[in-house]
Every structure is written in structure tokens, then in C-alpha cells.
TrEMBL record:
One GO cellular component, as annotated: cytosol
Pathway field: Porphyrin-containing compound metabolism; protoporphyrin-IX biosynthesis; coproporphyrinogen-III from 5-aminolevulinate: step 4/4
UniProt-listed InterPro entries: UROD/MetE-like_sf (IPR038071), Uroporphyrinogen_deCO2ase_HemE (IPR006361), Uroporphyrinogen_deCOase (IPR000257)
Name of the protein in its database record: Uroporphyrinogen decarboxylase
GO BP terms, alphabetized: protoporphyrinogen IX biosynthetic process
Subcellular location: Cytoplasm
Enzyme Commission designation: 4.1.1.37
Domain Uroporphyrinogen decarboxylase (URO-D), first and last residues per copy: 31-40, 151-167
Family listed: Belongs to the uroporphyrinogen decarboxylase family.
Species name: Brachionus calyciflorus
Catalytic activity: uroporphyrinogen III + 4 H(+) = coproporphyrinogen III + 4 CO2
Keywords: Cytoplasm, Decarboxylase, Heme biosynthesis, Lyase, Porphyrin biosynthesis
Amino acid sequence: MSAQLSTTDFPPLKNDLIIRAAKGESVDRVPIWIMRQAGRYLPEFREMRSKQSFFELVQNPQLACEVTMMPINRFDLDAAIIFSDILVIPQALGMVVEMLPSKGPSFPSPLIVPADLAKLNKDCDVKKELGYVFEAITLTRHTLQGRVPLIGFSGAPWTLMSYMIEGGGSNTQSKAKAWLYKYPEESHELLKILTNVIIDYLVEQVCAGAQLLQVFESHAGCLDHTLFVKFALPYIRVISKRVRDKLKERKVACVPMIIFAKDGHFVLEELSQSHYEVIGLDWTIKPQQARRICGDTLTFQGNLDPCALYASKDDLTKMAKDMLSKFGYKNYIANLGHGIYPDIDPENVKHLVDQVHKISQEMIQKDQTTTN
Ligand SMILES: O=C(O)CCc1c2[nH]c(c1CC(=O)O)Cc1[nH]c(c(CC(=O)O)c1CCC(=O)O)Cc1[nH]c(c(CC(=O)O)c1CCC(=O)O)Cc1[nH]c(c(CC(=O)O)c1CCC(=O)O)C2
């Protein structure tokens, strides 16, 4: 249905705060969005999910668009993120991924030995395999009517590699890390396959209408500095460079890119030199320390502890104030330091969003009055 929708002629943007913040431009209030903002903490999502499996929702552009719009219709958020998952890439490469109740993602046939790489559909046609994501993006851009920008996303190569080997979530990632020590060459081979698919996937998302891109390196924290620099960082860097080059070749305007390496404070300096406009921060690093490491020109995103949303509204206000006073209102996008948990009260999300806007607006107005 959305195949007939234009991928170039979209309704004009009415709220460009997040794009301005990503580029380091002035804002009249700090933008905020929430990782996993469409999902299980919303009763309307649970209702829809009770009738369809997770991947049925993701693979149906109409339903993915509806889910993406749920938090936008509820809260005064400054961005939408397309409803999907990082694990659609292993699926595009031919792996079966199931979402099991109370267990999460599960791969019935994970990669066990390097010979298993032969099973992957390495030259997969991203446009064909993941066409439903691009359709959902185009449909959502039109449905948004320019209310807020739409973010596209992908998992980073190391994080996806670890899922494909572990076969699901893992506290240690020991099976995947064993590959890095035992089979470094084949690990690089797999990381290159993933990188090529991710680049095409992100480029197509922008061509379909995504206005920012986030790359999730969710499993950064289980690597040490040496392993990260060898097996994760080079691919993160290639992605930002090649996505920009490919968009230029296709004469499509580049969009700001966000890198979020969870628990990756030990590589912040390297990430700050990786050509992403925005660095996502989890809650384990002090804002001032991150600034010292990365300098003043990059934009930060984060870093409220997702559990802060269990606090009382008064305490949440105090935490929002503290976060804004430490990050400042320039070069900053408010967000959690990881995805929102399923048992959070949506009322607290509304409170956080409204408080970030109110407090930052007051800070900006106060500074303008003192400089005038
Ligand atoms: O809001 C939106 O529109 C997009 C939401 C979104 C979903 N997955 C991701 C996003 C983007 C975003 O975070 O805003 C991306 C994502 N999927 C997984 C990870 C790794 C991780 O969580 O460590 C990421 C990156 C996010 C990050 O680092 O914060 C992998 C994953 N996918 C699902 C699970 C199970 C779960 O219970 O959460 C996991 C983690 C498994 C593990 O390793 O422990 C399934 C899933 N993906 C999304 C949803 C909706 C929701 O959050 O409620 C779900 C739950 C599915 C269900 O059971 O209904 C959407």
C-alpha cells in the first residue's frame, strides 16, 4: 500500500529540535525521546501484541506504523523511532529468530563453528529482505505529518554477531567472545558480512524517509579495550563513513548519526572520533567526565537510569533538573541510558518528558535574560 507513497515529498517538519541539537545548533528547549518508547509499558501496545507475535507486528508496515505512533500520540516527545528490532538483520541473513515469552530472542540454530558461516545468505538483497521496514518508515513519515522527526536504527556488527553465536541474550557473551580469541579471521569475516548489510540497511532507511539514524552497540560492555578496538570500533567507523558516502552517491541528504555503545565508557574517546554527531550514554558515566573526554562539540544523548522512572514524580523532577544542569541545554538530547522497562507507569514517562521541556525552557530563558 505504502509502495505508492512518495519517498521524497513528505509533509514539512514542524519540530526539528532533535536535528538541531544533533547538529549543535541552538534550541528553545531540550529535545527528548525514550529508547524503546513504543512497547510493552503501553497498554495499547500490550493489547495489540496479544493478537500478534512480535515479528508479525514488525513485518507489517501498517501495524509497525501504528505502534510507532503510540507514544507520539500519548506524550510530547521530540522524535519517533521506527518500531522494529536490531535482530531483523540476522533474519535477513537467513537465520531464524523467535521472540519467546519471558525469554526474549531465541535462535534455534545459532552459529557454533566457523563452517556455519556458509549457511548465511551473505549477498542478501536488503531491499527485498527488509522491504517491510522501509515501507513502514515511508508510511510513518507520512502519518507523522511532520510532527517530529523519525529515527531509523540498526544493531552494530559486534552486537549482532554476539546474538547470532549466543543464540539469544547472555550475561557473559562467552560463546561469542570465544570466537574472537579462537577464530579471529572468521570473526572478522562475519563482522564484514554484517557491516555490509548494515550499511545498505541504514542507507535504505534514509532513502525511505528516516531523518536520523542510531546504531546500537548494546554489547560493548562485555569487551575489553583491546577487543573493542580490534573487533567493534573499526566497523562502527566504516558504517558512519560508508553510509555518508553512499547517500552522497545517491544524491540523498545525509542525516545525523547517533552511536550508542552501552557500558562503553572505556572507549568514549575513540567513539568521539568516529564521525557520529551524537554519542549515546548509559547511566554509568558522569556527564562532566564524558564532556572532558569527548570535548564540547559533540552532542550527548542519555543518560537517565531507566529505573529512575520507578521514583516518585517529585524525585523524578529533581533527577531531570540534575541531569539538565550537568549536561546543559546545548548539544544535548535527553533520553534514558538504555531501553525503558516493561513495568514502567506511562504517567511517569509523561512527567519526565514534560519536566525536561519545562526545566530546560526555564534555563534557556534565564540565560537569555542575563545576556540581554
Ligand atoms: O520504540 C520503538 O519503536 C522501537 C523499539 C525497539 C525494540 N527493539 C529495539 C528498539 C529500538 C530502541 O531501543 O529504541 C532495539 C533492540 N533490540 C534488542 C536490543 C539489545 C538489548 O536490548 O540489549 C536493542 C537495542 C536496545 C538497547 O541497547 O537499548 C534485542 C532485544 N529485542 C527484544 C528483546 C527482549 C526483551 O524482552 O526486551 C531484546 C533483548 C534481549 C536480551 O539480550 O536480553 C524484543 C523486543 N524488541 C522491541 C520490543 C518492544 C518492547 O520493548 O516492548 C521487544 C519485546 C518484544 C515482546 O516480547 O513483545 C522493540
